[in-house]
Design goal:
This is TetR/AcrR family transcriptional regulator C-terminal ligand-binding domain-containing protein. With about 220 residues, the protein is mainly alpha-helical. Helix content is about 65%, strand content about 0%. It folds into two domains: about 60 residues, Arc Repressor Mutant, subunit A, CATH 1.10.10; about 110 residues, Tetracycline Repressor, domain 2 (Orthogonal Bundle), CATH 1.10.357.
């Protein structure tokens, strides 16, 4: 096993944006976690597997990530640092359809869907993974709100439209089929979900109401 990419003095994930050897170590661990999730699922993912696959000694993995939960959470955090931007087709209808089709294309291909599906499964078994998954999608939806902002500027949606609610409404029926009822999804269902959200926008269903909770906020007991 190759320990050459280790950085024993590196800070814990999240304390600063790492670079150089620290970034390579984090990326290697992330890649190993993704592969392990795709091949074995969360319950069978082990520190030993990640150590062998990444070339990072398991003592370093325990010290920096604390175990499998921490590595899975950090892999999601790292995924959320990408440069993905929502589609810009020139119309709200086109943008919502493009967003819905991204969901279908991402989860419809078994090879591409294995790791992200395992992340969702991990969230049901690990509080840290659940928090990381929440943060990942909160950031994704935040970026998608630009789609609705542009639509308001073009006069395609009321100025008081809740952008977060709209973009969540597009993916919600698709995620229901993918992860709850385990039904197949395709392009026509993606378009249907987008068109339903678009009709709701036009009807004023997603207009913000005074005193309504902020979309995406987690309830705290």
């Amino acid at each position: 096993m190759n320990d050459s990419i280790e950085d024993p003095d590196a800070p814990a994930p999240g304390s600063r944006r790492p670079g150089g050897r620290t970034a390579r170590t984090r990326a290697a661990v992330r890649d190993a976690v993704l592969t392990g999730l795709a091949e074995h699922g969360y319950p069978s993912l082990t520190v030993e597997y990640v150590a062998e696959r990444s070339g990072v000694h398991k003592t370093t993995l325990y010290r920096r990530w604390g175990g499998v939960e921490g590595m899975v959470a950090d892999a999601l955090d790292l995924a959320g640092e990408d440069s993905w931007t929502p589609p810009d087709t020139g119309s709200l209808a086109g943008d919502l359809r493009a967003l819905a089709r991204e969901v279908v294309e991402g989860f419809g291909d078994p090879a591409r869907a294995a790791a992200p599906t395992a992340f969702v499964g991990a969230a049901f078994q690990s509080p840290r993974a659940a928090d990381a998954l929440h943060s990942f999608y909160a950031e994704r939806f935040r970026r998608c709100e630009e789609v609705v902002s542009r639509a308001v500027d073009r006069g395609e949606a009321p100025a008081t439209t809740d952008a977060g609610a709209v973009v969540r409404a597009v993916s919600a029926p698709l995620f229901l089929r993918l992860f709850v009822t385990r039904e197949p999804v395709d392009g026509s269902l993606a378009d249907q979900a987008a068109d339903a959200a678009l009709a709701a926008v036009a009807a004023g269903v997603y207009t913000r109401r005074t005193g309504a909770p902020v979309t995406g906020a987690r309830n705290k007991d």
